[in-house]
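Lab meeting notes turned into a lecture example. A postdoc, R.K., suggested we walk through two folding results consecutively so the class can see how the record format repeats. The first protein's sequence and structure tokens come next.
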Amino acid sequence: SGVTEMVLNTFKTLVFVRLYFQFYTGYGMFVEDAFTHNLFFNPDSYENPIQFELVGILLGLAIYNSVILDVNFPKVLYLMLLGHKPTLEDLKEANPGLGNGLEKLLEFDGDVETTFCRNFEITYEVFGENKTIELKENGSNIPVTNGNRQEYVDLYVDYHLVKSVKQQYDAFAKGFHDVCHGEPLRLFRYEYNIIQHSLRYRLSITIVLSYLLFAK
């Protein structure tokens, strides 16, 4: 019957997507936040963009088939798919350690330049070597001060959540929107799921099945 076929398709989608994510998260496509266990794109991944496009397709299929996935993407990723521009609040949810640190810099009452000793650049380790990215032209020679710290934080958030993963996200979003667009996309929402004292966003699909079955 139609109902039986729908149930089987949902089950197959769930199994396939979970196996795929379990396999590829171990191959450098995503990085996991130690506190929230959120997965986000690895900016230094060597995987072909087509792999990220496939992940987007699979997530779209899960939404289209009303499958609830235990895949810990941060809320900001879903908001970005809806056209949202990431903010510091989004970074705090996705990566609390980094986001809260930037917020403290903004709220600091003393002299930012002499206390934090930062320039408009980001340095992090990749395969045992330090990699430095300038957040603006000549950023390595521009100190962060009380007067320009808001600009620094804005550029940092934009780089971390957008620019550094643009290739990966664009491919992912293409695959997702190829499958899930229009009304189904607007109908999904989020629910909190607390597991082992970690706050995680669990994708909760609220698609009206009658719409999916009979929409033209």
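The second example is placed directly after the first for contrast:
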Amino acid sequence: MRKILLLLLIVCSSVAATDAQQLSDSATISLLTCEPAEAIYARFWHSAIRVCDPQNNIDNAYNYGIFDFSSPYFIPKFLKGDTDYILAAYSTEAFLESYMDRKSTVYQQVLNLSNEEKQMLYDALEKNSLPENRTYRYNFVYDNCATRAYYIIKKILDKQGYTMEIDYSLRPKTYRGVFEEFLGRDNWQRFCIDVVIGSNADKRIGVENLIAFPR
């Protein structure tokens, strides 16, 4: 795993080393949402952003979910929100292959953005994926791959005077309900997460709290 991560970081560094290109008018930017898997760090849905511009030979996934699983005490640190993740930019083909290998479906939603907004978002993603910017302290409840993707898109739309509306009216209204949605009622992983959340597990949560748990 460490060798794979190192190789990926080398590839990502080469992708992010160049200045952001000017996207063509035919470029698209999409939100990718990936089905969960069995490992505890993959029991929730995952999000990434795809930038596709065939005219400029660009088709990269911007993935905020890269980590080193072989680091000491990874699972306890993961549950405590004490792990560092990075934003990695690499080919969409490689991103999709990793989910095909574990038989997870990946859903793509093309964002309805103007050319100016696409360029702003692409520039922001490129800047965030630079070595000096790409590392962040991951927390699976409050600051994860889904919230990072959401807020970088939201920031661009806010600058343009737009608002993002997300309908989570049918989703659970507490963290405990969210965990049961993904982990079931009788699961030691759910117990561990309940312990980490503590008294907040049964407090009512809003839409922005649910951003961390897409599906």
